[in-house]
Hints:
This protein is mainly beta and 236 residues long. The chain has a single domain (37-229), classed as Protein Transport Mog1p, Chain A. Helices cover 12% and strands 31% of the residues. It has a seven-stranded antiparallel sheet. Strands 7-6-10 form a three-stranded antiparallel sheet, with no helix packed on it. Strands 1-2 form a two-stranded antiparallel sheet. The longest helix has 15 residues, at 215-229. It is globular, with a radius of gyration of 16 Å. It starts with 36 loop residues before the first helix and ends in a 7-residue tail after the last helix.
Amino acid sequence: MSMARSARPAMGVLVVLVAAACGPATVPAGSPSAAVAPTVAASVAADSVLDTATIGSAFDLAMRVPVPQGWLTVLPPDDAPVHTVAVLHGRPGEQETWWGFGFMLVDGATVRDPADRAAATSDTKWVPWPASYLDYLAALPGVTVVEAAVPVTIGGVNGRSITVRAPAMAPTIWVKDDYTWLGGGKTGMDPAFERRIIELRVHGTSLLIEYDDDPAVFGERVRDVDALIATIQFPT
């Protein structure tokens, strides 16, 4: 999850550590880390777990996510945009060391008009959320599909995953109830990234899971990201 994700002041860090156990899930069969994720995930499942039930209406989806040693969480409403959560590897207070993945509740969200390619500003045109954000993203100008959308199961919930390489581009998502778009930072543009996006419908709620990073390190780091995502639970 890019640390230039939100055009707002720098985020602080709030770590929620709740002892819990996580059940298995599956990653896409085409994922570079599909073969190693179950083994790695087993090694982190007994560590601390983020329980979103402690967040309340700012992230209104019950979810449990492993937080191993060396990882931290950035949570709403004080340190992250509403309806978003980030799980990041790095040292607290040293944002230049952070990399990881994020969650977005996207019911009621909007996306950037695909015809608008300028940097994000107050004049940016936003349009209703598409039937599939994965298909929307893959169709944007300059985006290259690295791994086509495939079925995936996370925490017993079926969805789809895609991996793309995107050029430097304006941010594409504005979540409901937030006061600014997600991404772009002060320049209004996100850097060129390799991105893995998973879309799920969990207990009637639309959820995106996103990891984006420099293509030079994406292939190595995505293995750890997949391992943690493979142990997510969605309590009923």
